[in-house]
Design a protein that fits this description.
111 residues, alpha+beta, 2 domains, three-stranded antiparallel beta sheet, 39% helix, 11% strand, elongated
Protein backbone atom coordinates (compact mmCIF):
# COMPACT_ATOMS: atom_id res chain seq x y z
CA UNK A 1 0.00 0.00 0.00
CA UNK A 2 1.32 3.42 -0.93
CA UNK A 3 1.79 6.06 1.78
CA UNK A 4 -1.13 8.42 2.28
CA UNK A 5 -0.47 11.82 0.79
CA UNK A 6 -2.47 14.90 -0.06
CA UNK A 7 -2.18 17.17 -3.09
CA UNK A 8 0.82 19.42 -2.46
CA UNK A 9 0.13 23.04 -1.55
CA UNK A 10 -0.21 25.84 -1.76
CA UNK A 11 -3.93 25.63 -2.33
CA UNK A 12 -5.84 28.70 -3.49
CA UNK A 13 -9.42 29.95 -3.34
CA UNK A 14 -10.84 30.26 -6.85
CA UNK A 15 -13.96 32.40 -7.19
CA UNK A 16 -14.03 32.15 -11.00
CA UNK A 17 -14.66 28.41 -11.44
CA UNK A 18 -17.58 27.35 -13.64
CA UNK A 19 -18.05 24.30 -11.35
CA UNK A 20 -19.07 25.97 -8.10
CA UNK A 21 -19.07 29.49 -6.59
CA UNK A 22 -15.97 28.72 -4.50
CA UNK A 23 -13.38 26.02 -5.19
CA UNK A 24 -10.10 25.18 -3.51
CA UNK A 25 -7.30 24.09 -5.84
CA UNK A 26 -3.59 24.33 -6.42
CA UNK A 27 -2.48 26.45 -9.35
CA UNK A 28 -2.15 24.73 -11.71
CA UNK A 29 -4.08 21.68 -10.67
CA UNK A 30 -7.37 19.94 -10.13
CA UNK A 31 -10.11 20.99 -7.74
CA UNK A 32 -9.55 19.85 -4.15
CA UNK A 33 -12.87 21.03 -2.72
CA UNK A 34 -16.13 22.63 -3.92
CA UNK A 35 -17.90 25.02 -1.59
CA UNK A 36 -21.33 25.72 -2.97
CA UNK A 37 -22.35 28.56 -0.68
CA UNK A 38 -21.83 32.22 -1.50
CA UNK A 39 -22.39 33.79 1.90
CA UNK A 40 -19.74 35.03 4.32
CA UNK A 41 -19.69 31.68 6.14
CA UNK A 42 -18.83 29.84 2.90
CA UNK A 43 -15.96 32.25 2.30
CA UNK A 44 -14.82 31.87 5.91
CA UNK A 45 -14.89 28.06 5.55
CA UNK A 46 -12.78 28.26 2.39
CA UNK A 47 -9.86 30.02 4.10
CA UNK A 48 -8.78 27.27 6.54
CA UNK A 49 -9.32 24.61 3.88
CA UNK A 50 -7.05 26.49 1.48
CA UNK A 51 -4.45 26.94 4.24
CA UNK A 52 -4.46 23.25 5.24
CA UNK A 53 -1.15 22.17 3.64
CA UNK A 54 0.73 25.10 5.19
CA UNK A 55 -0.96 24.59 8.56
CA UNK A 56 0.06 20.91 8.56
CA UNK A 57 3.69 21.77 7.79
CA UNK A 58 3.68 24.47 10.49
CA UNK A 59 2.24 22.03 13.05
CA UNK A 60 4.94 19.48 12.21
CA UNK A 61 7.67 22.11 12.63
CA UNK A 62 6.15 23.35 15.90
CA UNK A 63 5.96 19.79 17.24
CA UNK A 64 9.62 19.11 16.38
CA UNK A 65 10.71 22.37 18.00
CA UNK A 66 8.61 21.84 21.13
CA UNK A 67 9.80 18.27 21.59
CA UNK A 68 13.45 19.33 21.47
CA UNK A 69 13.20 22.63 23.36
CA UNK A 70 10.24 22.12 25.72
CA UNK A 71 9.87 18.44 26.64
CA UNK A 72 7.80 19.48 29.67
CA UNK A 73 4.95 20.73 27.47
CA UNK A 74 3.39 17.25 27.24
CA UNK A 75 -0.21 18.38 26.68
CA UNK A 76 0.74 20.64 23.77
CA UNK A 77 2.91 17.87 22.30
CA UNK A 78 0.04 15.39 22.56
CA UNK A 79 -2.48 17.71 20.95
CA UNK A 80 -0.19 18.65 18.07
CA UNK A 81 0.69 15.02 17.50
CA UNK A 82 -2.99 14.05 17.46
CA UNK A 83 -4.05 16.79 15.04
CA UNK A 84 -1.16 15.95 12.69
CA UNK A 85 -2.21 12.30 12.80
CA UNK A 86 -5.79 13.27 11.96
CA UNK A 87 -4.63 15.42 9.04
CA UNK A 88 -2.61 12.48 7.74
CA UNK A 89 -5.56 10.09 7.85
CA UNK A 90 -5.16 8.50 11.27
CA UNK A 91 -7.81 8.82 13.99
CA UNK A 92 -7.36 12.18 15.68
CA UNK A 93 -8.84 14.52 18.26
CA UNK A 94 -12.61 14.27 18.34
CA UNK A 95 -12.74 10.97 16.44
CA UNK A 96 -13.87 7.69 17.92
CA UNK A 97 -11.04 5.26 18.55
CA UNK A 98 -11.54 2.25 16.26
CA UNK A 99 -10.22 -0.08 19.00
CA UNK A 100 -12.01 1.02 22.17
CA UNK A 101 -14.75 3.37 20.94
CA UNK A 102 -13.69 6.24 23.22
CA UNK A 103 -13.47 9.81 21.92
CA UNK A 104 -9.84 10.71 21.30
CA UNK A 105 -8.83 13.81 23.25
CA UNK A 106 -5.03 13.67 22.76
CA UNK A 107 -2.44 11.04 21.82
CA UNK A 108 -4.30 7.81 22.37
CA UNK A 109 -3.12 4.24 22.77
CA UNK A 110 -5.45 1.32 23.42
CA UNK A 111 -4.42 -1.49 25.74
Amino acid sequence: MEPKSHTPGPWNIDLQSPHCPIVIKPHPGNIICDICGIDSEAHANARPIAAAPEMLQTCKLALQTMMSEHPDWADAHDRLHAVIAKAEGEPGIGDLCPCCGNIIEAVHACN
